[in-house]
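> call design_seq(struct)
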């Protein structure tokens, strides 16, 4: 008999997490208000990538979809919706059953699990999930919840994910480091008028193997803005660049709509 889990959201991370869970032999029920054939197609693609990466069977027949949150049945729930606390809390209030300790997982790291729901556990994957085999896990309920423990053990033993226990801070470890780096790079452009290509050149010489501007495209400009806003509430030293909002207003969201924040910054940077 297969374990059952519900995934809230079929966006970039929801699709990947849902696909990953089918590779772990879960029966997955996905809630998304705007589920459509394109999202289902992208989920199938995620399954194919993960099946090839991990040499496992990921069965699409193990996934069902609903647009009604009331259809979600009792069991493990994995929340992957927008990085907005009101949206998360509002959606969870519509679930028709009581969520026990450790039965709600959240992929968010820019909020504390306890801010989202008193019984929530942080289980933060990175994008793309098949390339970054790392999970940040807040384990405050793991001793009380066998289902939660089975999931974490499966990630470690079956898929060889690295599970890092994290503490009560917004951003945990990965996004705390990464989004401070992103905000500082944007501050160098906005405040000190550095050119994008000079920042990337220096970064490459000090050991950075990626461009933070390309990371923004991968994460999504809107999601990047939400995460920096959330981290700024906890630490006022982090810089929120107006270029993020300007890009969003110009329709530049990154890979999700096949646009480029990096190109937007490059074309809108200027000399003093």
């Amino acid at each position: 008999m297969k374990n059952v889990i519900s995934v809230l959201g079929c966006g970039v991370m929801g699709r990947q997490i849902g696909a990953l869970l089918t590779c772990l032999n879960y029966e997955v029920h996905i809630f998304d208000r705007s589920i459509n054939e394109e999202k289902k197609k992208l989920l199938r693609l995620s399954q194919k990538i993960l099946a090839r990466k991990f040499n496992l069977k990921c069965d699409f027949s193990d996934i069902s979809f609903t647009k009604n949150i009331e259809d979600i049945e009792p069991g493990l729930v994995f929340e992957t919706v927008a990085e907005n606390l009101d949206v998360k809390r509002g959606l969870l209030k519509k679930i028709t059953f009581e969520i026990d300790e450790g039965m709600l997982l959240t992929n968010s790291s820019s909020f504390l699990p306890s801010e989202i729901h008193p019984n929530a556990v942080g289980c933060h994957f990175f994008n793309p999930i098949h390339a970054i085999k790392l999970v940040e896990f807040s384990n405050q309920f793991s001793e009380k919840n066998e289902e939660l423990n089975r999931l974490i053990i499966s990630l470690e033993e079956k898929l060889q994910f690295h599970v890092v226990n994290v503490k009560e801070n917004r951003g945990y470890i990965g996004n705390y480091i990464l989004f401070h780096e992103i905000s500082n790079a944007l501050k160098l452009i906005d405040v000190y008028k550095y050119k994008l290509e000079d920042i990337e050149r220096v970064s490459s010489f000090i050991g950075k193997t990626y461009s933070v501007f390309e990371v923004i495209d991968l994460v999504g400009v809107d999601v990047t803005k939400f995460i920096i806003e959330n981290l700024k509430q906890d630490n006022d030293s982090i810089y929120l660049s107006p270029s993020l909002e300007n890009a969003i207003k110009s329709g530049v969201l990154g890979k999700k709509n096949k646009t480029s924040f990096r190109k937007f910054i490059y074309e809108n940077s200027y000399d003093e």
